[in-house]
Amino acid sequence: MTLLIEQTLNGIQLGLLMFLLAAGLTLVFGIMDLVNLAHGSLYMFGAYFCASFTAWTDSFVLGALLALPAALLLGVVVEVIVVRKLYRRDHLDHVLATFGLILIANDMVRLVWGPDGRRIPLPAWLNQPIFLTPDLPYPTYRFAVIVVGAAVALFLYWLVTRTRTGMWIRAGASNRTMIGALGINVEALFTLVFGLGAVLAALAGLMAAPIVTVSIGMGDNILILAFVIIVIGGIGSIKGAFIAAMIVGMIDTLGRALLPDLLKSFLSVTAANTAAPALSSMAIYLLMAGVLVWRPTGLFGARG
Amino acid sequence: MTWRGRIAAIVLVLLGLLPWYAPWLDAAGVISQKFALTLMTRVLILAIAAVSLNLILGYGGIVSFGHAVYIGLGGYAVGILAHHGFTSGFLQFPVAIGLSALFALAIGALSLRTRGVYFIMITLAFAQLVYYVGVGLEPYGGDDGLTINRRSDFAGLLPTRGPDKTTAFYIVCFVVLVLVLGLVHRLVNSRFGMALRGAKSNEPRMQALGISTFRYRLTAFVIAGAICGLAGALLANHTEFISPAMMHWTRSGDLIVMVVLGGMGSLFGPVYGAVAFLLLEEFLPGLLKIGLTWLHDGVAAVLGPGAGALESWLRLAEYWQIALGAILILVVLYARGGIDSLFGRSRHG
Hints:
A: two-stranded antiparallel sheet, B: mainly alpha, two-stranded antiparallel ribbon, globular
């Protein structure tokens, strides 16, 4: 029972991290109609920025707070130099050009930070268990990730549904030409949205950093997972991304935690330990295929 | 014959005659014979895969982002059969091609219902699905892959060991490439190809003419998958090793890059693309070193010792992927027709 609660919390935590990554991706796709494969690179840069700033300031929190504006700056620069030229092109061009950006990003990181991975040390107060009930310890850091992730999700909900900027963003998602005609500076809005996506990706990257190792290409596989999430949720829909991220986080975590024991009953121990993560990864892609066959534009999507 | 045709013929002849002039290049000290043949065998195999992707991407407008999965399937068919002692190529190759065709039928039947970016993503998802099956196949090496101890045996018609092995295999790959090019040429100029290209440029109109565009797309998808499975079987024989990395999504990305770099919807474009992409990968570090040496000498002439040691400049060539990525972005932004369009206008426009 304790294991189940703990793993459910882990699932929520992974789901929220995935949501932060997917939210930026789905916003950028919904509004600019841009397939951005380099979104995973922004996630990686967030983690590396945080590693450097943490080493420099000796504080993880300060490092994280400094990494976010750095990621914003990077996002804006990339948007102005390359991405902006892609909006009028088709999806194949987006895939190719942002694939090129991934190659550049990975080697840039190798050039600046070297080929070895990095670990971000946690401060003592985050590096101890918190007791949710007297006999249920849970890592404080993971709990903090849940709190921050939920807060950012609420903030995004508020931003998109309650503010003027959010109104522009929603209007941009439904009719780009029209909001231009209504006198909104579309170019600036696009840069803003791309920058916001970069910050969200970097936040996800730096929050994942103390749990996984910071390494080159860390964003490449998780990016595909983020794409799966926005496709399941329906491209352009923040709500869809949130629900899909939660489902994917749960499947992945619970699959990894519970499947090995289940498989051990009819497989050898090593075979079960190899097959379980592979099976839970496969389950996610099967879910996506199922959703798309059933609803070709995702759960909450309207656009094709 | 147009210039496009002439250049294609020259490239094809140069590729086909490589085993005969490679010893001469070796003697002249340009490049070692074994290295040249090994590298160019890889080029030929990936050219076959790129040609198959071009059938659906270039002629059908079907942006499949999971095409490397068939390379993996073909490779695993050969590897797993060889692992169990079934080394006959007459068994391995039909299995590799049939398995790929079967998967393409299943993947295509499900994903061709979706459009646009959803299609890109669902093909990617299916490829990842098979990738994770490969990772989970513990008896066949899982993530680490599997070494193939014996190449496909064609009843002794092909040397599977010894010094002739490399040359003979190169010629086989070349012949397969020519046959595949011939097949794709016949296909796209047939009634089938007309319907496929028609579905790309004006789908409602094709449907109004009573043509089931879905069926044509699916057929093309299966043919492309089968050809790519053949390329995978050849690749497994070439590297004598299989691993899930063969079908990682970045490999699918590489294939799309080859097709676009060479020229989408041109018969010969993907061959140029494969040659250019793999040679760039191989020789870009060297080219960068030459460029960096010039740059260093130039800076040193102005600044003197302030330019620093040449070695620290040359170290930058390790990061050649930055240059490759930049080339890719520049091609997308400014040279959309690919290499083939440099040689004149395409008939298919």
